[in-house]
Amino acid sequence: MAGHNHGHTPAAWTGVTIAFIGFCVAGAFTVAANPLGFWVGMVIIVLGGVVGAAMRAAGLGLPKAQHSLPQPQPQPTAQAQAQTQQ
After folding, report:
1. CA 85/CA 38 separation, integer angstroms
2. pLDDT by residue (tens digit) across 44-73?
3. Which of 29, 40, 55, 71 lies 20 to 30 angstroms, CA to CA, from 80?
4. Per the structure, how many domains does the chain have?
5. Quick one: 52 exposed, middle or buried, by C-beta within 10 A (0-12, 13-18, 19+)?
6. Alpha helix locations (H) across 1-86?
7. Is residue 38 included in any domain, yes or no?
8. d(CA 17, CA 46)
9. Is 71 domain-assigned?
10. In contact, 27 and 42? CB cutoff 8 Å
């Protein structure tokens, strides 16, 4: 996986950072027993996903071509290998 560029884009970093802030807000208000603050944190988490998707749509994410995994090449059969060795 290290060879892939998974998540190393401005869209990914921004979306995850906003979601992390929302997680911290929701967690703090959960400990404080404040349901309104908890739900504000949940809205911030969703906002992080929306912002990340919008930035990706604006071209700040991975290009579409890099999203697909490389297709495995067919392995030659034993008969084909024997023919190439002759």
Report:
1. 69
2. 999 999 999 999 888 888 776 655 555 666
3. 71
4. 1
5. buried
6. 10-31, 35-55, 78-85
7. yes
8. 12
9. no
10. no
- Domain membership of residue 42 (yes or no) is yes
CA 81 to chain CA centroid, nearest Å:
41
Cα–Cα distance measured from residue 45 to residue 50, given in angstroms and rounded to the nearest whole number: 9
Cα 17–67–60 angle (5° rounding)?
A: 45
44: region left, alpha or beta (phi > 0 left; psi from -120 to 50 alpha): alpha
Give residue 38's domain range.
Answer: 17-56
Q: What is the pTM of this model?
A: 0.67
Those residues whose C-beta lies under 8 Å from the C-beta of residue 47, and which sit 6 or more positions away, are 18, 22
Residue type, 28: A
Q: Identify the residue whose tokens are 């023919």.
A: 83
Rounded CA gap, 69 and 47, in Å? 28
Q: What is the pLDDT of residues 67-83, one digit of tens each?
A: 555 566 666 666 666 66
